[in-house]
């Protein structure tokens, strides 16, 4: 899923006023979030709000998770599915860095 123009402008404005460390963290957070959304689109066969004959599942909200990286703690929204579960490749690659913000994963 590509970021739309307004989302990119919002990130750009945040980067302009942030310290260098925050810039890196914000950029990393934006990239991870886009990768997660793109992976889910591939898994279920349809983008957000897209109708498709090849759709295998539907999105059902998000859950917030924190990924600890060298750039800092990244607050990411992990999509939920109506049936089954979704654990992004980025999460599997950095599984030791994930922390929970609530009692259920």
């Amino acid at each position: 899923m590509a970021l739309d123009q307004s989302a990119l402008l919002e990130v750009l404005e945040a980067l302009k006023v942030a310290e260098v460390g925050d810039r890196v963290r914000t950029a990393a957070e934006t990239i991870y979030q886009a990768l997660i959304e793109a992976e889910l689109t591939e898994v279920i066969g349809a983008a957000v709000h897209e109708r498709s004959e090849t759709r295998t599942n539907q999105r059902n909200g998000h859950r917030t998770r924190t990924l600890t990286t060298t750039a800092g703690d990244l607050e990411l929204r992990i999509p939920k599915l109506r049936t089954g579960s979704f654990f992004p490749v980025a999460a599997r690659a950095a599984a030791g860095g994930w922390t929970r913000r609530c009692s259920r994963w």
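The helical segments are 5-17, 20-44, 89-93. The chain is about 40% helix and 25% strand.
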